[in-house]
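A student in our group prepared the protein record below, which I am reviewing. This is what I was given:
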Amino acid sequence: TNSGDLVLDSFLGSGTTAIEAKRLGRRCIGVEIKRDLAHDLRQRFQGDEGVAVVNADSRTARAANTVARQLEEWGDEHAHMLILPPPYHDIIHFSELDGDLSNAPTLDDFMTDFSNVARRGMRLLEPGRFAVLVIGDKYAGGELVPLGFLCMQAMISAGFRLKSIVVKNITGNE
């Protein structure tokens, strides 16, 4: 992205994308499902006109419409980069909320929900721009579940084109 560009994070979490966007001179709209976390992030970025936190379920039309209104308020039609760091299905329980992907009862349910988020993100992203999927695989029942590849396929089905895969071993990193 370029300075001043807008980054959309569909799973804002603790706000890392917003922090880095601000640090690098970008603007950020983040969607966070947990009301208390969204509130805390709004407080953290209070007075910063380049960060907006949307408290919504990224799977829903409400979330996409709220993001679109924020884009319009800032004079943009689309985001310039989409960040998708979804929960790794049921590895880490994020909340008790029904819309939280970490509560999806099955892998198929998780993939259906993630696919909805990817399709909505595709519509909010400026054509020709990039999306970044941040996800790892998991193990269940003694077998590898290629969650990263399944999510990449969902993004391809949503209309994204795969440009590269970066594999990183995070052992020892902070």
In short: The first helix runs from residue 16 to 23.
